[in-house]
Amino acid sequence: MSLGFGTPPATPPNAYPTQLLGSMAGTGQFSQQEREYYEQLYAHVDPQGMGSVDGVTGANFLLSCGLQQDSLHRIWELADSAGQGFLSKEQFFTALRLVAWVQSGREPRPDLVHAEPPMLPDFPNLQRNPAMVSPLGSRAPSLTGNSPSIGGDPIIGAHEDQIQRAAGSARRASSPARTFTEDRWAPSQREKRKYASLFKRTDWDNDGFVQGGEALDLLRRSQLDNALLEVAWEHADANHDGKLSYHEFVCLVHLVTCVTRGAQMPTLQQGLPSQLLNSLANLEPLEVLAAEREASRSRSRSR
């Protein structure tokens, strides 16, 4: 059944050394956090409890997530694997899981059907509470009856005026103490010196490259989800050789640093932010920055 989503893109190879961080594949079941939210979304598309979502309703709902039509076409194909033209409840949950994966920067693939994504899917028109899209392990969505709520206003199934009031409450409640600004995608001189020193320490065999195993402990310290780290690695390891040059290492570490400070990980489709690209293109030599770092630390110790 054609849903007007277009032709799915080719899936690029996955070059991230996921075996180092453990398999991301799950059992095919949905976590409690996923299921609670997916149940709410399902009630939105099947209010009569018919047990399935027809093609038109399902397609229109998925379009509201803001993804490209070719990705949505592939998501529908993976969820409706039998080509029935409609989705059962579990198949709809699968489609929602795949939406979350694509929003986190991955291409829709069959193996992701069985893996829990790093965040819940975002449907902007529903004005979902930002707490629901935090990395796995954070608190589950707050519930009021059968609907998530912000300030007491139900989101799913609410009237338009309620949605607008809830959206305003969400924006006020989610204002961070320090907002990440685009200029911070360019590492500061101090950060570049730190990254140079870190590269020299991490490249323990002194071959001029950081291997996946050498970077593992460093990545784990960030406490970011494996899926986000995979996207960061794929951004940084531009030639997909499984190891990082000095420039690639700076790219990886700064991406991870920015995300821990509140930035959204850019998807592979979006590419790296221009500020980071420009900084990498003009990056000073490793030895120069490392020497500046050591000189700065020596001055601090002598005071």
Description:
The protein is mostly helical. Helices cover 46% and strands 6% of the residues. The protein is built from eleven helices and seven strands. It has helices at residues 32-45, 55-63, 69-79, 89-103, 160-173, 189-202, 212-221, 226-236, 246-260, 274-281, 286-302, and strands at 52-54, 86-88, 143-144, 147-150, 153-154, 210-211, 243-244. The strands form three sheets. The protein has a three-stranded antiparallel sheet with strand order 3-4-5, covered by helices on one side. A two-stranded antiparallel ribbon has the order 1-2. Strand 4 (147-150) and strand 5 (153-154) form a beta hairpin. Helix 1 packs across helix 4 and helix 6 (189-202) crosses helix 9 (246-260). The radius of gyration is 22 Å and the shape is elongated. The protein starts with 31 loop residues before the first helix and ends with a helix.
Features:
single chain, two-stranded antiparallel ribbon, 11 helices, 6% strand, mainly alpha, 303 residues
Give the helices and strands as they follow along the chain: HEHHEHEEEHHEHHEHHH
User: What percentage of amino acids are in beta strands?
Assistant: 5-15%
Q: Determine the fraction of residues in helical runs and give it as a percent range.
A: 40-55%
For the termini, the CA-CA separation is: 73 Å
Q: Give unreliable regions as ranges.
A: 6-16, 18-28, 127-177
Oligomer: single chain
In this structure, how is the largest beta sheet organized? 3 strands, antiparallel
Judged by helices, strands and strand pairing, the structural class is mainly alpha
Radius of gyration: 22 Å
Strand elements, count: 7
The number of helical elements comes to 11
